[in-house]
Amino acid sequence: MIQFVVRRAVAAIPVVIGVTLFTFLIMHSTIGSYVPGLDLNPNLKAKDIEQIRRALGLERPLYVQYLDWLGVAFIMGKLGLAGLLGGWQNITPGLLEGDFGHSLVDGTSVAGQVFDRLPNTILLTVTAIVIGVLFSIPLGVMGALRRGSRLDNLFTALSVGGVAVPQFWLGLMLILLFSVQFQAWGLPFLPSSGVATPFGGGDLLDRFAHLLMPAIVLSFVYLAIWSRYTRSSMLEQLSQDYVRTARAKGMPERHVTYRHALRNALIPLVTLVGLELPGLVSGGLVVEAVFGWPGIGLLTYQRALAYDFTMVLGIVTFASLLVVAGNLIADLLYATLDPRIRLS
Amino acid sequence: MGRTTPADGFDRFDQFLSEWSRRDFLRRMGGAAAFAAFSAGGLGWLEACGGNQAAKTDTGKAVKGGHIIEGSISDIGNLNPIFTNDTASLQVTYRLYDGLLDAEANGTLVPNLATAVPKPESDQLSYRVTLKKGLKWSDGSAITADDVVFTYQLMFDPKYAAVKSRYRAQLTEYLASVTAVDPQTVLFKTTKVYAPFVVTFMVLGILPKAVWEKLAPADVNSTEMNQVPTVVSGAMLPVKWDKGSQYTLRRNDNWHQGKTFFDTYIFKVVPDAVAIANQLKTGELDVGIVDKSQWDSLATAQNVSRVGFVAPSFDYYLQNLDASKTPKAAIFGDLQVRKALLMALDRKKIADKVYFGQAVSADSSIGLVSPAHITPKAQYPFDAKKAEQMLDDAGWKKGADGIRAKNGVRMEWELRTNVGNKVRETLIQVMAEQWSGIGVKVTTKPVQFPQLVTQLSSTREFEMILLGISESIDPDQTQLWSSKSIGGGALNGAGYKNDKVDQLLSDAVQTLDQKKRLDMYHQIQEILLQDLPSPLIVYPKANWGISKRVKNFNVGGFSQYQYRTWFKDVYVTDGK
């Protein structure tokens, strides 16, 4: 088991390097001579821009910038290999020095930004996942048990809708109805953005009111997909021999369904939920942007639009670590749920 | 191919708008909300909306206490005056730090920490600034000339070379020394006569030396005090920065202008300018700049006043005049063509339709807000027929396909703007449509902002670009029109060269006599309107929504983000 975990962790290193290198190259290919954070300002002269570019180290060759970011340049300096950098300087602390870097645009710490927002994102995603799991399993089971019934068809239609409706549209619609219109009608209305009322808010009820709409919108897709998976997986299990055997032995139908079939039917769902872990970053991006939810998704969205490479790179590194961890956790859960799977 | 008139262009544009796009969706959403508010009895229709109507100050009935929440579509970045860059950060930075000088809506400089706006000494190079008596930092210690000297040293002294000040290059060029004559007096010596010196550099916030001198120069770039400072001089004190969410400030009782009436000021990050309009309606926000598409619907909100005014900015298009960069220079190099193209644009209709009525047709090369603005004699009112005639006369004849050509060069080119700016993305399509009416074929292409900047200021490989420029108070436009500003990161990407303009631009920044200086800018505007290297299309408006419970929030002209001389008068009527 420990050996398995260690092996997977080592295998993650090339993944993380590959992902960051790819992101780094893509982002740099888009900027040309632009300096992130600078607008077209007639007050800012060409030599000012040149000086800011130098201060940010953007005039250095790409490989030096990447090695600097990674922290390898720093280590090379320590080992007396700085000459290999062609006289270019290592100006920022890098990943291997335990530093996720600083924003190109405003100099804030990437780790500081990410960790400050992490609780918000976790709150939103976990709430959405919990809503998704709580509702998708019963819906899926009901659909499977009454296959072809009106109820089943209704669920099917709903889940197709859940996948098809864009989250930003649903979010805007809910805001329009529950925030703007309810207020116009003089009814109690839900806040349309943020995690808490800026002034005098922040109590449990206030935070719940802010969480409600984004969590529901985010859970909608989970709900739609997971209930379908539960349904088909359940149908498959119900047609298995062991179910027939159980029934033949006279086991009550409830036991057959919930103790035996459901337990096996949940295995694919575990993978899916495990795969949502990196969704801590990406899954909530649209919802966070629509609801101004100050999480990692919103940070990624805004910083990508601002061409803040170091910030995006830091978030991507963080996200890729989460993907690796998410897969690992899913594998471990697999083994727990299904004795046929052995970790080796 | 049938011919298209500009009117057809607008019909098509209307059709485009009526199709199901997100922009339209948002517009309709606003409309629906407006209708609902209207039918619910909201009849705040006759709200003033042309110019800054609220610019009356009356603190006689001012109520003490309470809070104000201002919406912003982006979070703060860096709140250190020597780094501050974007508008969201400027809004907060200058509530925390005062500079020697401040500015009013029309760009007039007024004293802030200084007792007066300094005049050049007899040598034309030195400026003596006297600080007001009794100035205090928020920790109670005195603000002295040493603090001022230290702040400028951080920005330009070689001993602080590691500090990534955005003013280093310019200050190194223009500032010879800054010294404390006595605790109340600072002497600035410039290296050469430079007229924009005072307005550019004396409005910057001053840092407390005692706090910042403890840091190593490199740490100045990354200290957390760049977001949450410990000692400040402005109207407000920092309380807390909730990243991506809000920045909370409270009253600074040591502020030299007196205490603000309200206790708490909050900058709240809101997803976009449509959401700002929605949250103004629900009362979640007190002030903010709204999306132009929401302006009409905001009129129905009983609790919100609208303050719209022409902002110090313009949208314009660059025609590449450099034959070594594009063969299309053969088209744009013809002055009659440049004039005809501008005349074929119905700018009033553009302002009405593309900017939802929230812009005015541009008439010069400098924005309306600037005191240097004049309306030059050469004007190009919309006249498509005359434009066609001018092109015919200039030898640009229509071919069988309806596209004009001369000497084998067809009148077709690509018009670019930056992706993500909905107004500009729409505008390039409308321009293409309007020009197609006079036998010109224009394809449109939104590109990423960094690429556009690179194409404009370095490679200069483009045919035509539509862009917007925010203006500073000083009317110097060397960056835009001087032949020294072609390539190398500067903004004269069109490659415009006019010796007279070069000379005037260079003389103007070396002329300290304001009247003579203004006269030079008037001459420059006359020439630029005759030459039309890169014509301005419109001056967009700034569209503020202000809750009726907030009084004396007198935004206007230059007085929006950094300069808020009226901040001390602002109060909330309910004291909450």
Describe the structure.
The complex is a heterodimer of chains A (344) and B (576). In chain A, helix 6 (150-164) packs across helix 8 (204-238) and helix 12 packs antiparallel against helix 13 (309-337). In chain A, 69% of the residues lie in helices and 0% in strands. Chain A has 344 residues and is an all-alpha fold. The model of chain A has no long low-confidence stretch (mean pLDDT 85). Chain A is flat. Chain A starts with a helix and ends in a 7-residue tail after the last helix. Chain B is of the alpha+beta class and 576 residues long. Helices cover 31% and strands 20% of the residues of chain B. In chain B, the strands form six sheets. In chain B, strands 10, 11, 12, 13, 17, 18, 19 and 20 form an eight-stranded mixed β-sheet that branches. A four-stranded mixed β-sheet of chain B has the order 1-9-8-7, with helices on one face. In chain B, a hairpin with a 2-residue loop joins strand 15 and strand 16 (409-410). In chain B, helix 1 (6-18) runs antiparallel to helix 15 (422-436). The N and C termini of chain B lie far apart (65 Å). The model of chain B is unreliable at 1-7 and 13-54 (pLDDT under 50). At the A-B interface, helix 2, helix 5, helix 7 and helix 12 of A face helix 2, helix 5, strand 9, helix 9 and helix 16 of B.
Evaluate the radius of gyration of chain A: 25 Å
Range of strand content of chain A = under 5%
**Gap from first CA to last CA of chain B:** 65 Å
Largest sheet of chain B: 8 strands, mixed
What order do the helices and strands of chain A follow?
A: HHHHHHHHHHHHH
Average pLDDT figure of chain B: 89
Please provide the count of β strands of chain A: 0
What percent of the residues of chain A sit in helical stretches (DSSP H or I)? 55-70%
Mean model confidence by pLDDT of chain A: 85
**So what's the overall shape of chain A?**
flat
CA-to-CA gap between the ends of chain A?
7 Å
Low-confidence stretches of chain A: none
Number of helices of chain B: 19
Please identify the structural class of chain B as seen in this structure: alpha+beta
Radius of gyration of chain B: 25 Å
- Low-pLDDT parts of chain B are 1-7, 13-54
Structural class of chain A: mainly alpha
- How many helical stretches of chain A? 13
